[in-house]
Amino acid sequence: MSAGAVLAALAGIASAEAAECPRKDALGTSRILSVDAKATPRVGLKSFPQTLALADHEVVLTFDDGPHPPTTSKVLAALAQECVRATFFLIGLHASEHPEMVKRIAREGHTIGHHTFSHPFMARIPFEKAKSEVDRGIAADEMALNGASTTTPSTPFFRFPYFEATQAQLDLLQSRGIVVFGADLWASDWNEMTPEQELKLVTERLAAAGKGIILFHDPKTRTAAIMPAFLRYLKDNGFRVVHVVPGTSQKSADAR
Hints:
- The protein is of the alpha/beta class.
- It has a single domain, classed as Alpha-Beta Barrel (TIM Barrel), CATH 3.20.20.370.
- 44% of the residues lie in helices and 16% in strands.
- The chain contains nine helices and ten strands.
- Helix 2 (69-81) packs parallel to helix 8 (221-236), helix 4 crosses helix 5 (127-146) and helix 7 (195-209) crosses helix 8 (221-236).
- The longest helix has 20 residues, at 127-146.
- It is globular.
- The termini are close together.
């Protein structure tokens, strides 16, 4: 498939998604961005020199540490209300405890990435243990999602807990064709604050940055509480949501 054909296909998907949104005044998902490890093995300016190819006022919404049904369900409801697609980096242990929530995240059109099995400080443990955390996390997520335990992720996206990794771990993931996601800005929702304080903090950071990959944590009650207001802020201030999916550039290159 040519690059033009890939773009046309993606445009068709984006148009179909827009047409499916029942609310004419919803924020919506503006486009789909294909991401692969060959072209962009690591993204996110908080950790790496490069990030995703986003235009001004484009954002990618990401959520870590779920699923946690009481709050993840509220986040999903807010995203559905605005017809917005996001990426959820799941902890394998939580996925194994709540497989129906994992299936719901995927069923509602969101991307599922991986975030280890138990959320350790990866740079502080031996390489083999870190590798096991990656593999067990992927296997648990895949079992919850597809009913099959495999260490080959259906979506090869991974985020390190605490954004902490060794070079050997980064090299391992790159060799396996797995994109490592950092972030360009975050809501700092791991800190104690009110929902109002979190909303103010993240919107001020986004206004200053102008675009980027945004990090939230869906198990946080305050984050679930602000999501409807945050999505309204995006719409009212001309921001557009980009949905990231696994890349096809290498397949396209092979086909030419």
